[in-house]
Input
Amino acid sequence: MSSDLASRASQSKDISRNKKKLDGKGQFWLVFRYFALSILFVIAALPIYIMVINSVKGVTGVNQSAAFVPPTSLNFGAWGPTWEILREPMFRTLVFVLQSSIISAIIGSINGYVFAKWRFKGSTVIFTTFLFGMFIPYQAIMIPLTQFNKWAGIGGTIYVLVFAHVIYGIPICTLIFRNYYQAIPNELIEAARVDGAGMVRIFRTIILPLSIPGFVVVLIWQFTSAWNDFLFAIFLTGGSPKLSVATTALNFITGSGNQVYYGNNMTASLIVSIPTLLVYMFLGRYFLRGLLSGSLKG
Amino acid sequence: MASTTLKKRKKHIQNPWGGFFFVLPSIIAMAIFVYGMIGWTLKFSFSNRTSPWKRDNSFAGFARYTELLQDPEFTHAFSNLLKFTIVFMLGTMISGLIMALLLEKGIKGEGFFRSTYLYPMAISFIAMGTSWRWLMDSAKGETATGLNLIFNKMGLDFLQNSWYTSVSGSMFAMALPAIWQMSGYVMALFLAGFRGIPDDLREAARVDGASEFKIYRHILFPQLSPTFLTVLIILGHISMKVFDLIYGIASKGYVTKVLAIYMWQVIFDFQNYAKGAAIAVVILVMIAIVVIPYLIYVNKTEEAK
Output
């Protein structure tokens, strides 16, 4: 269902057929469309443009009234000191995000397989109760979760974040894989059943080899949302510096007291955004697919 | 042969609980960490645990909730959230729809525009907040920076304003970065909706002499009503729990305070667990009112399949 949705939204419409000459009115509309699209482009690109050009003006080179103007020469002076502060939190984030994404993907694929192909009595209702977990405000579970972490002995370690992202990632990961597996024809499974294969063997020999795109979607989704997460990070680590992750470290740098160091702030924001931006640039189509899965229906 | 395969198939159909066994760990996890913990938060919100020194978990009934109603900071945050929600939802719907309308017929460079409109979804708002805080700097005239500087240079001085630091317009200003971030997502949803409508429908109407406007009004938009519903639900629940977007720009500032920010402050700065839990429950209830009917509707259409 939703992979269908994503391909509809991510494939450009084939316009090679409309080769016929445009009349005056048609030409006007074409120019108008490009004009409007370009204005929207400028608005969409403006914040990242500012970030990029002001990150290469050095620590003190940012003149507020010229902040829209690109620099005359490249000065990476702000990068070194900023990276020094961000290096450790960024590596910490990378490690925990990879752990949580991989675990989430494995759980999601097993759940998705069952909900798509091995439904049992009440499975649709259970699946729907899972989905509710996708919409809840995490504020509503945050106080008990903090207490649970303390009780379980993972309080004060990075595992609080691995755990939170795995648990609260179950609904979306299950949903993405379920939608993905639903597109696999039942006949394939039936045929394997006739040959005597059981649930686990069918999963291993037929489903898993077909699952790579599904795994890419889920891994990217979990990676991006855990990397960008601020709410869990700030609640569960309690602002402890030895547990600071990319977003909390960034917030520490750019927080309200440091508003004058624009060069540093912009550089730090850019550095923290680079991993997810790279993922978006190279695997944007899969990112979109994850995004649209959250919408449940076409 | 035939009878043995039939038997085997039957065995699998009669024993469908294997699947249940494999999802059981997740069912237990959801039961504890979603539903159980919501219950736990509810219990907190009905308790007397209002300060770090008082480990008093006794039952207080609705005392925390009636306190909230009399707390000017809470009502301020609540009305801020409503203002934000209205501007954010309308703005994102409209700009996302405009993007989709501009692109849906196909145009050279579509992929390029589409990816630019969607990239804000890939970046954390703590990072984007740096740019937006600067863009919406409240300095005007000679000292103007950010958007005010652009207005100044363009001779549109009357457009200069205090953005998110103004008392009356703070939430409208705060909705701008939110609209900026989510429009691409809404565009993608509408684009998928438009592309799902067969071209023949449009062609047939055109042959019948319908104007382009009428085709959209009477043929395309009615087909998109499920998409509109989805967009409303998604934007609505995101708006209700908005936190890092506002925190990244204005931190805990009073004029832009919404429920999620206030809740965080109550828990961390005042360590008033009971009151924080009550605020969380308010957010949850607002979301549940919208989302649960939607999920029931989705569930029904799923079971009909």
In short: The mean pLDDT of chain A is 87. Chain A has one domain: 79-293.
